[in-house]
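#data-curation
PF: Archiving a pair of folding outputs for the training set. Convention for this channel: one message per protein, sequence first, structure tokens after, nothing in between. First:
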Amino acid sequence: MKNKIFDSKATEIIQHKLQEVQTKLTHQDYLNHYILETLESFAFRYFDSPLAPEQISNNTMRVIAVEKGIKEAIKIKNIQLRAGISELVKRVSKEQGPTILREIRVKLERHSEHSGSCQVTARVSFGHPDHRFIEGTFVEKLSLFRFEDEIHFRNTLAKHLEVTCELFEF
């Protein structure tokens, strides 16, 4: 009898916490804050000197880093990116300080109060010095997912960030 009461109380507490989290995540500001914190975490994992994550529109957040460590970048697994960085090194002398720009971006689209879709993008520009992401000057990896509610979004975002950030791996 004691275990049934305990199980019932534990279930009640868990349900209450889930509802509390869902209520918080329903608010766009809270969800955007969550995305910015997650981007910051990933930036410190994949970038040498990331800038602060920023919200660039109502539904788009990003974090970037301009990096000078071209020697390390040449070790990147992505063949297309490695070729672009090699061209950068040939085009821009060491004295001029060639740079690459890395970016992680999250774009959120709401379809209803709780559901929506999310586009996660990781990209690297070798278009020194402007880094405007003009065709032929960058490589990107995209991942798109749909979510039924905010908890599903929270549990899925990191997985998709991991997939796109494979672009940065050596």
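PF: Second:
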Amino acid sequence: MGRAAAKGAAGCPFCAGHEAETPPEVWALRPDGSAPDTPGWRTRVVPNLYPALGAPAATAAGGSPGAEAGSFASSGDPLLTSRRAGEPDLFSARPATGAHEVLISSPRHVTAMAELDDAEFADAVATWRERMRAHADASCLQLIVNEGGGAGASLEHTHAQLYALPFVPAAVARQRERAGSYAERTAGAGLLADVLVEEVRRKERLVAIDDEAALVCPWASRSPFELRVIPRREAPRFEADAVGGAMIATAMRVLAARFGAPPELNLWVRTAPRGAEQFHWHVDIAPRLTIKAGFELGTGVDINVYPPERAAADLRDCL
């Protein structure tokens, strides 16, 4: 969907010179050694002013954080051994604790990552990795980018958000288990690595490839022009790797070229969660071109009116 008209830098708390309008920074890339919470930064990280996750409550005597997970499994992991007692708890809940940070991609008032130059883009991705490594003790790290109001962005200045979770979400756990099961059946082969080999061989959903990573429109894409960045060398953790940034930039820019301007979109990084012995990190990008309606919400089955093979061909023409 098209973006709303830009509001501009006036009053934007993420622009250089407006540092006092955010919570105090927890990290910044400052090549000139400038003082915290002043201009002179290239990327800047602050706690989210309206966090989805709160600080953990004090640990009970003799216990440990998250010790009472109720119907959640060990360490808040839904696919590990359940700790349920005999009576089912139909309304189990746990506190939403952890860290929630905002990673500001540029001091310039840029409304889409596609508009960053090469150096700015590299700095932004390096900052993602830096802050993910800072929360290495989390059960699961989820980094996202929302661009455009229709994609959930409350501020137009381009930025990412990082959630350091004390549990492994069910969707991530299923992906971890699927990768592990495939490795067991194939004497150690990587599921996504084998998918990538086949996508490169067939070429019909391949958009671009370089020495580090490939860009594909995934088979059975859930929505039009969905994209996936896959590193060519299997590595479990995005934050521990150093490749793929240029291909993420290619993905964002080719979408902007195809639609004449950066579309509203969501990006998320899938990195190995706790307990993953076999995993292959990747980055997914979903332009917000359609709306999920009653059928999709009621069945969990997505209707994609633009096949990934056609989308890939369109995007290759825009390179």
